[in-house]
Amino acid sequence: MTPEEEKEEKKEEKEDQEEQQQVLALDAMKRYRNGEIWDFEDDMAVSDGHGGGGGENGVLLGLDGGTTSTVCICLPMIPSCSHSQLQSLPILARAVAGCSNHNSVGEIAARETLEQVMADALSKCGSKRSSVRAVCLAVSGVNHPTDQQRILNWLRDIFPSHVKLYVRNDAVAALASGTMGRLHGCVLIAGTGTIAYGFTEDGKEARAAGAGPVLGDWGSGYGIAAQALTAVVKAHDGRGPSTRLTNSILQALGLFSAEELIGWTYADPSWARIAALVPLVVSCAEAGDEVANKILLESVQELASSVKAVVERLGLSGQDGKDAFPLVMVGGVLEANRRWDIGKEVVNCISKYFPRVLPIRPKVEPAVGAAWLAWNFYMKEYYS
């Protein structure tokens, strides 16, 4: 056998091994999907698929999957309910799990988290998969039709064929939580990450930011905290001004020097872990620290620019910029519980460009918005 033939044979053997590994992984995942996680269904009374916790009409599942946590809400499917009555639908069950962003934890771990949280919600309300009418899965990391299709294929493997399945970015559920499931207006999410997402009434959509920390999620919790950590290191090196952030962050983390901060950061550079430092930045800004104040001011500008980009691309404010449109604001960074109110400053900034913007702080969580979307999507197909 010539060297070229040996090389080709080894290449073929390697490809065969990789193919076998993929098959084994898929088989394992399929066994998982149809294994212990759904064992609770065997202990439930046999039904015709029209019963369970939602009554004879079945149930809806709404999922909000983010970088920090994943929430699944189960609502009863009541076809006679009007859109204006959606808020009156009772929450039958709520389940919580960890991160389901495949860009953060990998596809297999993300799928396992999503399936577990759906199973937990159905188990809590005494329903089976056969009683589900529709599922709206809104998760971060769904940025392209290929992402949607991959998850849809996986969901189809879990649920019976009659179940309607919808997959969207988590920003869509956040918008729906402030508009009762209607996709019109703009949503700004600023939590661990950030994204601005908008829809017109005729279905056009646009987004800005949301590319993750490596590509600059400035204005997000991670972005704010990362800038604060950088400021501490610069101050220590003599490359930047001294700042209250140094003592505040070191004390909170139980560290004694800025050198230790480097080790702490890279020991576990998870996005949520870094973002958890944001309250310290706000406190320092409220205490008059110029460095912290500058970080927050720049973050406000970044968040406002994301909204401005989406509104202008979709023409949400009309040709003269004076039409009213809803701006749904979601995420811990935007919560109005501090004197240095980032959300309020963002609205003030946006109002200079769009004076008729209508800020909305939802009274329900995004997972409920996802369930409302499931109801809207299902009813639209039902009546068409």
Automatic annotation (TrEMBL):
It is an enzyme of class 2 (transferase). Belongs to the eukaryotic-type N-acetylglucosamine kinase family. SUPFAM superfamilies: Actin-like ATPase domain. InterPro entries: ATPase_BadF (IPR002731), ATPase_NBD (IPR043129), Euk-type_GlcNAc_Kinase (IPR052519). Residues 61-374 form the ATPase BadF/BadG/BcrA/BcrD type domain. The lineage of its organism: Eukaryota, Viridiplantae, Streptophyta, Embryophyta, Tracheophyta. Its EC number is 2.7.1.59. PANTHER family: N-ACETYL-D-GLUCOSAMINE KINASE. Residues 1-21 are annotated as: Disordered. This is N-acetyl-D-glucosamine kinase. It comes from Stylosanthes scabra.
